[in-house]
Amino acid sequence: MRRHVRLDRPQPMRRDMPSLARPLVVRKPIARRDIVPVRREARTDDFEARSPLVFLPDPYVDYGRFLTPEGGILLVYKDLDLRLRHTLWRIFAWTAATGFEGWYLWNRSPVQSAWINAALFVAVAIVNAIIVAKPVEVYRTIEIRPEGMILEGSEFFSRYHMEGGWPFLAKDAEGNQVLCGIYGTRFVEYLTVRRFDDLDRMPEVIAAHLQDALRQLWTTAL
Q1: Final residue of a structural domain among 72, 102, 132
Q2: Looking at the structure, do residues 183 and 142 belong to the same domain, yes or no?
Q3: pTM score, two decimals?
Q4: Does pLDDT of 222 surpass 80?
Q5: How far apart are CA 137 and CA 218, in angstroms?
Q6: In sequence order, what are the beta bridge partners of 139?
Q7: The pLDDT of residue 126 is above 90
Q8: Where would you tag: which of 97, 110, 119, 141 has the fewest CB atoms within 10 A of its CB?
Q9: Residues 78-89 as b or e (16 or more Cβ within 10 Å = b)
Q10: What is the phi/psi pair of residue 132, to 5°?
């Protein structure tokens, strides 16, 4: 018979990993400074200390440009109301005031000298004329919307009826700027932008802002 020899299986060797001590971490409280929010508003105390000019006037005198809730651009400027009814009211006010004061000087005046009363009457008439001669100032509005132009908050002009071109400012005989253009088949003068003095450049500013508003709203709406 064949003899079987029993062999022992090799035993796996167990290797124990040496335990290494973990480095000791020392936790120290870190002192952090509080984060100060950035404020973008100018400090008036520093500005006053650096600059002798304390009051900064608004360069846009009697003029404003705003965005409307309807998605339009609103231009507001000061103008003179030269309608006939204001002229008639000036004449009536001057006549009534001067007539009453003349009656008082000639009938109720304690001064007995006619020359003094006449001089007072002339002075009163001149003062009343200066008071009523001041023109009536009003604020007019031009609002540009994607669908058209609104003047004075009530007169609407559709941009689809302006096939001949957009409204523009042109100089008239008096040196003022007139907003005009072709609307339908008619040449229309929408309104007048008056120049109040030689240094007034409000018509030029309105013309630039008007063209910018037309380009932004009417070009993108095509």
Answers
A1: 132
A2: yes
A3: 0.62
A4: no
A5: 31
A6: 78
A7: yes
A8: 110
A9: bbeeeeeeeeee
A10: -80, -10
DSSP code string of 33-47: PPPPPP--SPPHHHH
Tokens 């229309």 belong to residue: 188
Token look-up 């109040």 returns 196
Strand 136-145: give its sheet, edge to edge. Answer: 63-67, 73-81, 136-145, 148-151, 155-158
Whether 192 and 142 share a structural domain: yes
Domain that holds residue 112: 84-132
Collapsed DSSP state (helix, strand, coil) of residue 74: strand
Average pLDDT of the residues of the chain:
79
| Structure confidence by residue, pLDDT tens digits, 29-87 | 544 444 444 444 445 455 455 555 556 677 888 888 999 998 899 999 988 888 888 88
Please classify residue 61 by burial: count the beta carbons closer than 10 Å to its beta carbon, then call 0-12 exposed, 13-18 middle and 19+ buried.
exposed
Question: Is residue 157 a part of any domain in this protein?
Answer: yes
Cα–Cα dist 176/193, whole Å: 6
CA distance 71 to 150: 13
- DSSP track, 151-182: ETTTEEEEGGG-TT---EEEE-TTS-EEEEEE
- Considering the domain architecture, whether residues 75 and 162 belong to the same structural domain is answered as yes
